[in-house]
Amino acid sequence: MNWILASASPRRKEILQHLGLTLRVVTSDADESIAPCAPEDMVRELSRRKAMAVYEALPKPLPPDTVIIGSDTVVRSPDGEIFGKPHDREDAARMLRALSGREHLVISGVCICDAQGNAHTAAEATGVIFAPLSEQIIARYVESGECDDKAGAYGVQDTASLWIEGLRGDYFNVVGLPVHRLETLLQDTLGVSLLD
Question: Which candidate in 29, 31, 41, 72 is catalytic?
Answer without folding.
Answer: 72
